[in-house]
Amino acid sequence: MTVNGAADHQAADHQAAGPPTGRRAGEAVGRVLGTQAASPLSFWVGLEPGKVVQLDDVVVTRRDVPGYGPVLVAGVVTTVEARHEGAAYDSDVFLIADGALPAAVVEVAEVRVTRVEPEVFVPPLPGAKVYLAGSDDRDQALYFDVMDRRIPLGMGRDGQPLYVNFDFLDGTRGAHVSISGVSGVATKTSFATFLLFSIFHSGVLAGEAANTKALIFSVKGEDLLFLDHDNLRLDERARDVYGRLGLPAKAFGSVHVFAPPRPGDPNGVPHVASRTQGVSAFYWTLVEFCEEELLRFVFADADDERAGYSLLVGQVAARLKAWAEPVGDGGAVRVRGTSCRTFGDLVELLSDELQEEEARREWTGAQTPLGTVNAFLRRLRSAVRPLSPIVRGDLPFFRNHQVRTSDAQVSIVDLHNLPERAQRFVVGVVLRGEFHRKESSGTARPLLFVVLDELNKYAPREGDSPIKEILLDVAERGRSLGVILIGAQQTASEVERRIVSNSAVRVAGRLDPAEAARSEYGWLPTAVRERATIAKPGTMFVAQPEIPVPLAVVFPFPAWATRPSEAAARPSARTTATGGDPFQGLPGVEDDIPPF
Questions:
Q1: Which of 525, 520, 554 is nearest to 76 (CA)?
Q2: Coil, helix or strand for 553?
Q3: Taking the model in full, what pTM does it have?
Q4: Domain with 491 in it
Q5: Which residues of the chain have pLDDT under 50?
């Protein structure tokens, strides 16, 4: 895709930053300033002539404290400034350049303290030497030394790996990830898939790796359908980055793709153009639609809950569950003597029944105003066209046709060919099913990671809907059930606050300046907010509970194909889109255990 998702990462053709040249870890770069107040939380550094620090550098200084001994004060550079010392007017710069006015060029840097070890909160003394952090000091400064289970996020600007504590992802001490950024530039989907890859292959899952699952909803194009194909554009430089991160440079090994049937196709062939192997069609029969009370997900827009017919939806769904009877083996139903073989037939039946006063009382159990009924029916009729391809009475009821996460480590639900109304229906029904499955299992293990883009569409700040209820359940109770949400959105300010606030890890890519000024980005210091408005694709700012400042991360070029033209052939794949074992000849889940 060229406007968002994985391909936007590729369009920039970026690589993770390499090690900076001309600087050595542990070298002295300056001294703590005495002209600026130093505190246990921040201080300023005057740089020695010829020395350079940049934003995000990790620096350390030490102070001998009576009774405690040496105290390490470590932090991250958040501001770097250069000025003429001795100039009084702006025009003096020309006189200084011509040698007519004496002045010195001075560079200073502000450091935000991230860790004091031992915890003796005293300010560094003016004049104390400041050093670029060596590997051990860097690990201390960024708390990597206390992360028993850490996963690579990408490379820092110093060319060294950066990590996130898995305890804040798997529910041990927190869960969920919120990713924000401008569409087409922020590489939200690319980062989400890299995060999944890192989780599966970093070794933190140990023996649980084979059974841990990911469910990805793909809403823009077919680029996410090739996660199990090596990227032909991956070069040696990118492979080296994966090696430095401790990850294999390869595609996902176990992927199952689900796509809706082609409209009007009597055989239920998946509606995809670029991939024909390892793809299964998903749909719901009319029998399942009635038995599982899926009618409420037809009215999954927040505006539906504000309308007066929300109670009527529940009443009609309950009657359908009680009165619908299966007809034959094709998923059709009979309701009050009338057979329905398409979703349109069922809608027409409801229309005829609810417009007749006596029948309407039987359906609703009470006197219902005709205006409310008509509003309900108008909304229901408008759903016939978008939902007819996926709510079927003409396809075999016994065929595997529902989205399931048991077939592969990564399950991708392709929604891009469905109208927005149908996308909401699919997301709501699938999430409800997976959440109930995890709830009934009685254990949080194995974990299920759910990647959902455009979160502001499914869980908007205002209003209520069945999908929003489920996502709130995931955000608030998913941690204990092993359901981890990785949500992405252009504007976090438009997403339900409780979902964002329950995310232990927050990520921002390129931000719109107006959006960056919103209070939802208070976790970003002012300087980082400004940087986020000019961030390049592939650069993300990641905040996690243990580290006081967000980390600027450059994650590597995808090792998996992000568009059909990049996909390397998989000679072992022998599947077809219409039949047989969808993963015959493909590596199974058991084969995808990382080589620890």
A1: 525
A2: strand
A3: 0.86
A4: 170-281+402-589
A5: 1-19, 571-596
